[in-house]
Design brief:
Layout lengths: L4 H9 L5 E4 L5 E4 L2 E3 L6 H10 L3 E2 H8 L5 H17 L5 E3 L3 E4 L4 E2 H13 L27 H27 L3 H14 L4 H13 L3 H18 L6 H30 L11
Helix pairs in contact: 1-5, 3-4, 5-6, 6-7, 6-8, 7-8, 8-9, 8-10, 9-10
Length: about 280
Amino acid sequence: MALDFIDSLVARHAPGSAPVVRLFGGPRVMCGQHRMEVPEGSKRLLVLLALHRAPVERRYASGVLWPAGSEERAAGNLRSALWRLNQANIDLVVSDKHRLSFRRGVLVDVELVADWARRLIAGRPAGDDLATLPRRTEAFELLPGWYDDWVLMERERIRQRVLHALEAMSRQLVAAGRYAEGVEAALLATCAEPLRESAQRVLLEAHLAEGNWVEGRRALNAYQALLLRELGIAPDPELAAMLAACQAARADSGRQHRAGRVARRAHRPPVARIATV
């Protein structure tokens, strides 16, 4: 892949040099290839607006961002954050006496990822949705190092959405006969959350669909050992049943194949012998 996962989504949806607020590994603002430095005192305001997208009441924003102290002090901090953005020529925010919002045309990478995930979960991939896989961690690094409650909630929401999308992506790739990519998508989900049973199930399904019964057995054994070590429990018996059913089907197919060969030999016409004088 020439572009990383987030970059590829931005390239598909950002016309020309449209401003993009990047929260994965951020925050930062990009206009094409140009990075705009966000003033430290304005980052939390930019992030709050990016995560909400809908217009935000000024009193709500100042209360969330500066909960300690008086309302007057919080309102002053908000005005200062807006002023710093303007001084840095980051003209992304529209404000009046009551509300704040982004200008039209501003893109947010979290929204692009959420839309990508929504299409996959709904079974309606578009464009290159099935052609680009996240790296192991990039789609889960939303605002690393930020621990505000409102950030933590959004981080978990997008993490769950991406995990579900990877599982759906794996199944859709397998259905299209793209087994190697289906296995890779499932592996990304299991690497991100090794104890997640639905991800392990999708990985097992991908291995079995490709005919790799041994790989399926290896994956299930590893998951059983992990669950026993971490939680002291066993996985859903249905996973072992899936594997056993595949093994039985393979054995039955082998028996039928051998029986067919025997039957063909039994009905083969005798070879005419040439009489010798």
